[in-house]
Amino acid sequence: MPKNANMGLLQRIRGVSVQTKHGILRMTVAIAIGLGIAVAFIALTAKEPARALTYFIAAPFMGTSYFSHMVEVIIPLMMSGAAVCIMFSANQFNLGLEGTIYLGGLVAALSGIYLVPNLPVLGPIFSILLGGLIGFFIIAIPALLQYKFKANIVVSTLMMNYVCLYVGLFFLFRVFKDPSSSEHTYPIGEDAGLAVLIPGTKIHTGLILAIAAVVFAYIFLYKTKLGMAIRMVGQNPTFAKYAGLSVSGLALLSQFIGGAMGGMTGAVQMLGLYQRFQWTSLTGYGWDGVTMAIFARNNPKYLPLAAIFLAYFKTGAWAMSFKAGVQIDLVSVFEGVMVLFIMAEKFLSGTYRKMVFADADRKRKARNATGEGGQAA
């Protein structure tokens, strides 16, 4: 590399703030610790550790089906992550996305069975919008309880997830179950599902919708006045209030949008991968959305990288579970450890102080050198 290019790269690195550098360092160390613990668990529990580790680390590159599975996982990760980014940007720790995804999927499936089973293109769009509508109403309940009665949003949304699950199970088993099956609805209409995007795989047009969701979230939060107001409410609600913004109204709006996107996430997942509604438990994509928002620091433009990273290891764990007999839940341990360290405010705080002092010392020396050069001239 030419000397000038090296100097330019060095200047760009030096131009990055200490806070950003420290954030990257914390993320890197947290990932390394999580991976180390995951590898240790595999080594201790697997009958063939080398085989298990091979699938865990390299599965997406070991076959088309594995790579396809990774892309399939990326779709709900990006959509749920975009929804959580909008809510968390307003400092609303709403954890109700699990319920919206579950009932959004159920409503979309029922729409594809009974309302628009033979309507291509417009049918899936209608079903996805219907899923978004149910997600909006689900999130509106705990959001309004918080606004009207100061209910704890974390507790109420956690409980709402299980309300959604058991309401959905009631309708699945008592109303819409196919009598010829044990726990499935009737088949979704062929024209009501999302089209396959890449022949020979299960990658569907939901990938385009996931990208659109991330783009929408980024433009909304960073390129519109309303998004800027929501971020201001999240960063400093007192200042936002004195600036004339409706803090409660903007907080509610962020949750309504997030809930609608959660419902559409469930609808896309259902219409893209399933022929019948068969979910008998929460999907877990709501929790993954929280992880995505934490990894992306509530900035949607980082969601694709975060989704690829997590989907990569989820695919490895999925392949490892049936190829090497290691529990797929291992990836949850990996994910949880990383989030634990990323969220720990004191993690590497001593290193941050050292980086601040080193940066200040570097700038002082640069000023002194500039001053001496000017005097010499």
Explain how this protein is built.
The chain is built from 15 helices and no strands. With 377 residues, the chain is mostly helical. α8 (206-223) packs antiparallel against α11 (247-273) and α9 (225-235) packs across α11. It is globular and about 80 Å long. 41% of the residues are buried.
Give the oligomeric state. single chain
Record field, number of beta strands: 0
Q: Which structural class best describes the helix and strand composition? A: mainly alpha
Distance between the termini: 32 Å
The low-confidence parts are 5-13
How helical, in percent, are the residues? over 70%
Quick rundown:
By secondary structure, the protein is mainly alpha-helical.
Brief descriptors of the model:
mainly alpha, 15 helices, globular, 377 residues
Topology:
Blueprint: H1 3-15, H2 18-45, H3 49-58, H4 64-89, H5 97-115, H6 122-149, H7 153-174, H8 206-223, H9 225-235, H10 237-242, H11 247-273, H12 285-295, H13 303-323, H14 330-343, H15 349-376
